[in-house]
Design brief:
The structure holds two protein chains of two kinds.
Chain A: H1 13-22, H2 76-92, H3 117-123, H4 154-168, H5 193-197, H6 201-204, H7 216-225, E1 238-243, E2 247-255, H8 260-265, H9 268-279, E3 282-283, E4 287-289, E5 295-300, E6 303-313, H10 317-326, E7 336-339, H11 341-345, H12 347-354, E8 358-361, H13 363-377, E9 385-389, E10 398-401, E11 410-415, E12 419-426, E13 429-436, H14 440-451, H15 456-465, E14 473-474, H16 475-479, E15 493-495, H17 503-508, H18 511-537, E16 541-545, H19 553-566, E17 572-576, H20 582-596
Chain B: H1 14-17, E1 36-41, E2 45-63, E3 79-97, H2 101-111, E4 119-123, H3 126-129, H4 131-138, E5 141-144, H5 147-161, E6 166-169, E7 177-179, E8 189-194, E9 198-203, E10 209-215, H6 219-230, H7 235-244, E11 252-253, H8 254-258, E12 272-274, H9 277-281, H10 288-313, E13 318-322, H11 330-344, E14 349-353, H12 359-368, E15 379-381, H13 398-401, E16 408-414, E17 419-420, H14 442-466, H15 473-493, H16 503-516, H17 524-546, H18 550-564, H19 572-580, H20 586-592, E18 600-601, H21 603-610, E19 617-621, H22 627-643, E20 646-651, H23 662-675, H24 677-684, E21 688-692, E22 705-706, H25 707-716, E23 720-724, H26 726-731, E24 741-748, H27 751-756, E25 763-769
Parallel strand pairs in B: 1-4, 4-5, 8-13, 13-14, 18-25, 19-20, 19-23, 20-21, 23-24
Antiparallel strand pairs in B: 1-2, 2-3, 3-16, 6-7, 6-14, 8-9, 9-10, 11-12, 15-16, 17-22, 24-25
Helix pairs in contact in B: 2-4, 5-12, 6-10, 7-10, 10-11, 14-15, 15-16, 17-22, 17-23, 18-20, 18-22, 23-24
């Protein structure tokens, strides 16, 4: 049913789609309206995949060829069914054969951008030998430093993908010599990354502006000149993807230093992707670009541009893949670097349906490298990291910047659908301490069941208005006041949802109260586990990341409070502006690294 | 009623209380004498504790006044037996649903005679809520006690006083419970109490403990959230739902995120990545069962994880779990155990307690009874009055599982004297008294349960016969039969009801039931008669022994010990012979013995040892009255004394079958001393000491012996332990390792057991052991 249509004609389907034909019936990737952003996280009608009226030509790129708004929870069958609608569209948008563009001439001037030191250095951070497994909630405790490189299966995959892409050669110029793409960690399946990594270190230095002739650097540059870009960079588009249990996080680098020449040579397909992604803030009903997180004027891999942060629900993955297929994404011969569980789960689908070979990456590696990178480049001149001053005093509690220049050791608590807790000792030395299955997915899942809400935003909105003390049994509800023997305040929660044991109380609470109680319960529990881990690992800095914290000031302040209060000020809770996107950023960094490696 | 139980606070059920008809005094027993009350009111269950004195008949032996001469008239019994009323202390614990509180308080008020009681110790969350009600109803001042202090006092108490209190839960084994032998050093440990919320306490000593953490996600969360999600009100029903559900329909598993098991990462696809994760992304209905299961997993895993983190932080490997979330529910024990194993990688052991539900009440009681120094006593679980661990069969529906909806009882008898380990145990922590674990061995269990059932008629008959002057003896004996029969049936269903099931526990339960119905010593008259007969034979036996050469005499002494041991009313084969032929004699018994080599025969080593230097001091655990003690043990003792070995003769404190009691042994010794100068001088010079074991069991638990005995053993430097009889040397202690020489002697008077040991009826066990250097 899901036919591959990549081999078709040479037209730029993306442009020809023009939203009109897709109309309202396939309202995917709607242009964001105020408030739409809020729809992304939760259980709303799915990532529809059709264009909308007035959408830009590029809209088509992301149209998945699915008719009608898809509901949450639709199985593959349903996706398949709706794919029928896609066929229609395929008729309208015959796939172009790879459009070969003339090789670009070597270019100087504006294209020759000085790479800020923190750019490449951070961008190419090597992964350490202490890689740990990706983090399902119920994971094991402790790192597994000696296991084989987690993404080793991805290495040959990446190679073959690149080869295929090279042959297809669509987009910018293909490298004349297709390098085998082996990840920086060295031999496939090897886990002795350190020796493999060391020779690479010089490359991680900022590129000298004027390299000596005959020098290896020059050769390198010469080779790069024959690449699509000026250097040995991956072909555009540059994506990093983190396919989580609930959300897919996508980062997209939009080059802003495109020369006229480049612009001219840019295949339409690619151009439309760029235009579509950058000119919209919402894609379909559930795809959202977090405009406020955009990192501007960033230099990555020698190119200057903006880094965009996009997310959509994981259940829209099938339609996303199908769209990739229909739009012949594979013709762009880009390497899709993906991390998160979905990189494994959907790998087969990417290959079979969209002819795309994923370069799979370890999610904890990506998380850490992404985090360090983003923190190092800063948030458009502002610091990425912050904390709450006076966390135990609601009136004085306020957000303050924090300098994470010397972050080690840190306890990194990644709160997605589930939670992983890592102890990070250096950029390439970390272990997964533990995890819990009580995470963002639990909050949203329980909220949906308890209140009938459908989205994360809805749930949080309700929670903001609710009062959990109606739902929870407090210490004072049991002891009539403080429990002095143990120094517990009367206002402390003794039993989450404890009041709900009584029928009268069940009948008297509001949905908002329930949402709030769910949020408080999950948050406090994560805080409690994190605190215990910090104690056990003897670490006093706890960095909380993950999309559970998105627009979730309640949880952040609770965590800040809990860390401070229970540790008597010994522990500090830190937060980062790009909460949930570090895995995706880390994946993108891997794209550069794998290109660099050879 | 059923609805009320779900209210949690209990306050909603008031209107229905009136309809409750309390079971009669079967529940609140001995209330008339109740002296001190304590109450623990939890979220759903109330536990009432009171201290009461139990008046029961005991058979006392007393020497006749032998001031006159010529006392050895053939027809005269050697001593008189008088049945006296004795008052012993007993702790009663009753557990019932909060719904019953008012009715129970009314009942107590109506039956409480004692007016000295002025105060009731109260603990538990509900103590605050029900304070006024209690004060109004009982006219007792409510003295509120700290919940956790009570809990820990109670926990220490049961860990010290109740054998097989703690157990681990083993999935897929039959039965699922594996009881732990009581560790002599119970500290330090971690107590995780899962009530509405979770408290984690590190207990370091009797009085020192520290609240190290807690969690608000506990039983209340399961109940409250479960009620919201499934519209199911009762906790038990929620658990029942959970036991039928599939959590993978609601939870996001690793395989849902990764598409399968992740082999390279060593993560099972079945692990939960996000609890309730599917309900966030799937627009579908979820079944109550599935949600309840998911909730149960979520909460159990979370608690297990926190417990492990705390255990690790404090370097503890023993974690006891308690609270209503656990309370005998196999579903929660299973998930908690799984979680602990998972998170600790097997380094931490999840332990559960049989009487976990009573800890608070026990502690509150102890708190109030501090002036009585309850901790200086030893206590024993009364199997007759305690209802045992509730049925835990997971497939039972809530109706059948509703033991928590009725009344649960625990009774503890205060023992006369504190009990301690025998100092001669090689390794007290690893000592297990019982030879066969009937919980484990289904075949043996079936045999012994049937065996005890079949012997019941005889015991009833014997009990009636022992009290010919009593008008209600037959009636009481019938009640005894009912009670013991019911216990046996319970044990068929739930072998773990009172901890590890053993022949010893079956025997003890029978003794407790007999006492319950005022048959304190059904064998007193038989023992009296036998002692009389045997005493008359004593001089002759000693004389004939003295004519033998040394080597011959040693064998004859041992044979005498063994022959005496054939006289055991506990073994059906023998009691048949004895009933039919009361003059079955010592010599006949000797003839019945197996010829050497015996089934277990280290006699040669023993003889060799006797050729060496004498032992400093021998500790002898005697078995039966009559021929055994008088013609078997005393000549053996006499020989040891002559060798220069001091002897400590330990007999039961209270009666059990025809076992010689300490009281009887004193009279017997006195009478023998009158006939034999060796014994006479040894008694006078305290080279022969008669002590009590502290036990009233036909078996022997060397980890619970009278403190005085232990002190004496240490003081005299005992270097030989002689244990005789099937109950003490075969059913128990057969494998007991001591740090000094030991002799274990018995005649196997049970065909089945004989066969199991590879012998036949009346096979002889003579086990002489010398500890490895």
């Amino acid at each position: 049913m899901l036919k591959l249509v990549g081999g078709g004609g040479g037209q730029d389907w993306a442009c020809s789609v023009a939203g009109t034909s897709l109309g309202g019936e396939e309202a995917a990737f709607e242009v964001a309206r105020p408030g739409d952003r809020g729809k992304a996280g939760g259980g709303s009608p799915g990532w529809g995949c059709a264009g909308i009226p007035d959408s830009e030509p590029w809209a088509g790129v992301l149209q998945a060829g699915v008719v009608g708004p898809a509901r949450w929870g639709q199985g593959a069958e349903e996706v398949g069914e709706s794919a029928g609608g896609g066929e229609e569209r395929r008729v309208r948008h015959p796939q172009a054969p790879a459009l070969r563009l003339p090789n670009r001439k070597p270019q100087g001037g504006s294209g020759e951008i000085k790479t800020p030191e923190n750019d490449l250095q951070r961008g190419r951070l090597s992964r350490g030998p202490r890689a740990a497994p990706p983090a399902p909630g119920m994971g094991d405790r402790g790192g597994q430093p000696e296991r084989s490189a987690p993404h080793s299966p991805g290495a040959p995959v990446g190679t073959s993908a690149a080869a295929v892409n090279g042959l297809l050669h669509n987009g910018f110029h293909p490298p004349p010599v297709q390098p085998p793409l082996v990840c920086s960690r060295g031999p496939v399946g090897g886990n002795d990354a350190v020796p493999q990594r060391l020779p690479l270190l010089p490359e991680l230095q900022p590129q000298p502006l004027l390299p000596q002739h005959d020098s290896p650097a020059k050769k390198c540059r010469l080779r790069r000149r024959m690449d699509s870009g000026r250097k040995n960079r991956p072909p555009f588009p540059w994506f990093g993807m983190d396919i989580g249990g609930t959300l897919v996080k996508l980062v997209y680098f939009e080059p802003k230093d495109i020369t006229a020449e480049e612009e001219q040579e840019e295949v339409e397909n690619l151009k439309s992707i760029r235009k579509y992604l950058t000119s919209n803030t919402a894609y379909g009903k559930t795809g959202i670009r977090d405009v406020h997180l955009e990192l501007k004027n960033l230099t990555m891999c020698g190119r200057k541009g903006n880094l965009h942060f996009i997310r959509f629900p994981s259940c829209a993955m099938h339609r996303f893949i199908q769209m990739g297929s229909e739009k012949n994404f594979s013709s762009l011969h880009t390497t899709l670097c993906a991390t998160g569980g979905g990189a494994f789960k959907f790998e087969e689908d990417f290959r079979m349906i969209a002819d795309l070979q994923l370069h799979k990456l370890d999610e904890l590696d990506c998380l850490i490298q992404g985090l360090l990178y983003v923190d190092s480049v800063g948030f458009n001149g502002k610091p990425e990291c912050y904390y709450f001053e006076n966390p135990t005093n609601p009136e004085l509690c306020q957000k303050k910047p924090y300098c994470l220049d010397n972050p080690y050791p840190m306890l990194l608590v990644n709160m997605g659908s589930g939670v992983s807790i890592l102890a990070v000792y250096s950029k390439d030395n970390y272990k997964r301490v533990t995890g819990t299955s009580l995470g963002g997915g639990t909050f949203l899942g329980l909220c949906c069941l308890l209140t009938g809400c459908e989205t994360f935003e809805e749930a949080l909105e309700m929670a903001a208005k609710g009062d959990s003390t109606n739902v929870d049994k407090l210490v004072k509800d049991i002891y009539g006041g403080d429990y002095e023997r143990f120094g517990l305040q009367g206002s402390a929660v003794a039993s989450s949802f404890g009041n709900m044991m009584s029928k009268e109380k069940r009948d008297s609470i509001s949905k908002e109260d329930l949402a709030r109680a769910t949020l408080v319960t999950i948050t406090n529990n994560i805080g409690s586990i994190a605190r215990m881990c910090a104690l056990n690992e003897n670490i006093d800095r706890v960095v909380f990341v993950g999309n559970f914290l998105r627009i979730n000031m309640v949880s952040m302040k609770l965590l800040a409070y809990a860390m401070d209060f229970w540790s008597k000020g010994q522990l500090k809770a830190l937060f980062l502006e790009h909460e949930g996107y570090f895995g995706a950023v880390g994946a993108l960094l891997e794209l550069f690294k794998m290109t660099d490696d050879k | 009623m059923a609805e009320c139980g779900a209210s949690g606070s209990g306050s909603s059920g008031d209107s229905l209380d009136k309809s409750i008809t309390l079971p009669p005094d079967e529940i609140f027993r001995n209330l008339e004498n109740a002296k001190r009350f304590a109450i623990d009111i939890g979220g759903s269950l109330t536990k009432l504790a009171y201290y009461s004195t139990v008046q029961h008949k005991v058979a006392k032996v007393r020497s006749f006044d032998h001031s006159g001469k010529d006392t050895e008239r053939d027809h005269e019994p050697p001593y008189e037996i008088s049945v006296q009323e004795e008052i012993t202390a007993r702790l009663h614990f009753i557990k019932f649903e909060n719904t019953y509180i008012e009715a129970c308080l009314d009942f107590i008020k109506d039956h409480l005679v004692n007016t000295e009681t002025k105060v009731i110790q109260a603990t538990g969350g509900g103590a605050y809520k029900f304070k006024d009600l209690i004060e109004e109803k009982l006219r007792l001042k409510v003295d509120k006690e700290d919940v956790m202090t009570c809990l820990i006092k109670g926990c220490n108490f049961v860990l010290k006083n109740i054998p097989h209190e703690a157990f681990v839960y083993q999935k897929d084994s039959d039965p699922e419970f594996r009881f732990q032998t009581n560790h002599p050093h119970i500290f330090p440990y971690l107590l995780v109490n899962i009530g509405s919320g979770v408290s984690i306490v590190k207990v370091e000593t009797e009085d020192r403990f520290e609240w190290v953490g807690g969690s608000s996600i506990g039983g209340g969360t399961f109940w409250g959230l479960g009620a919201l999600l499934t519209k199911t009100k009762k906790f038990d029903e929620l658990l029942h739902l959970a036991s039928r559900g599939q959590h993978s329909n609601v939870d996001m598993l690793v395989r849902d995120v990764y598409g399968g098991a992740h082999q390279t990462l060593g993560l099972s696809g079945n692990l939960i990545a996000s609890s309730f994760g599917k309900s966030a992304t799937a627009d579908q209905e979820f079944s109550k069962e599935d949600m309840a299961k998911s909730l149960l997993h979520m909460i159990s895993n979370d608690i297990g994880q926190l417990a492990c983190l705390h255990a690790r932080l404090h370097s503890l490997d023993r974690v006891y779990f308690g609270g209503f979330f656990i309370r005998g529910h196999p579903v929660t024990m299973r998930t908690i155990t799984y979680s602990i194993n998972f998170f600790s990688k097997g380094e931490v052991q999840a332990l559960f307690l049989r009487h976990e539900g009573y800890l608070g009440a026990i502690g509150a009681f102890l708190k109030g009874a501090e002036q009585d120094n309850p901790n200086q006593y030893s206590w024993g679980e009364n199997y007759a009055g305690s209802s045992g661990l509730m049925s835990t069969s997971p497939e039972l529906g809530p109706a059948q599982r509703a033991r928590s909806g009725t009344f649960d009882l625990l009774e503890m008898d205060r023992l006369e004297r504190p009990l301690v380990n025998l100092p001669l145990l090689l390794d007290p922590p690893s000592y297990v008294p019982d030879t066969v674990d009937l919980t484990d061995d289904a075949l043996a269990r079936k045999y012994w349960l049937t065996c005890f059932e079949e012997a019941l008629d005889g015991v009833v008959k014997r009990a009636v016969a022992s009290q010919p002057d009593s008008v209600d003896a037959a009636e009481r004996a019938e009640k005894f039969r009912q009670k013991y029969w019911n216990k046996l049936q319970t044990l068929r269903q739930q072998p773990f009801a009172y901890g590890t099931l053993t022949v010893r526990s079956l025997l003890d339960t029978r003794e407790h039931c007999l006492n319950e119905f005022n048959f304190p010593d059904p064998y007193s008259k038989v023992k009296q008669r036998e002692n009389g007969v045997a005493l008359r034979c004593f001089p002759g036996v000693v004389r004939s022994l003295d004519t033998l050469g040394w080597e011959e005499r040693q064998l004859a002494l041992v044979k005498g010990l063994l022959a005496g041991n054939v006289f055991d009313w506990g073994a059906k084969a023998v009691s048949d012979v004895l009933e039919s032929d009361p003059y079955f004699g010592f010599e006949e018994a000797k003839r019945k013995l197996q010829e050497r080599p015996w089934l277990v025969d280290s006699y040669s080593e023993w003889l060799q040892r006797l050729k060496g230097p004498p032992h400093k001091c021998a500790l002898i655990f005697a078995d039966n009255s009559g021929i055994d003690i008088i013609l078997g043990v005393f000549p053996f003792v006499r020989e040891l004394l002559l060798r220069g070995t001091e002897v400590i003769l330990a007999c039961n404190s209270g009666p059990a079958l025809n076992d010689v009691t300490h009281g009887e042994s004193l009279i017997v010794a006195e009478r023998i001393a009158g006939m034999d100068p060796v014994v006479h001088s040894a008694l006078r010079e305290e080279r022969l000491l008669l002590v009590q074991t502290g036990s009233s069991s036909p078996c022997l638990d060397l980890s619970r012996l009278d403190k005085g005995l232990a002190a004496l053993v240490r003081e005299r430097g005992a270097d030989l332990v002689v244990i005789e009889g099937m109950g003490r040397a075969v059913h128990t202690n057969y494998h007991a390792a001591l740090c000094c020489e030991s002799l274990k002697l018995a005649v196997i008077k049970n065909a089945w057991l004989a066969e199991r040991l590879g012998g036949r009826l009346f096979s002889v066990i003579f086990k002489y052991e010398v500890p490895a250097e």
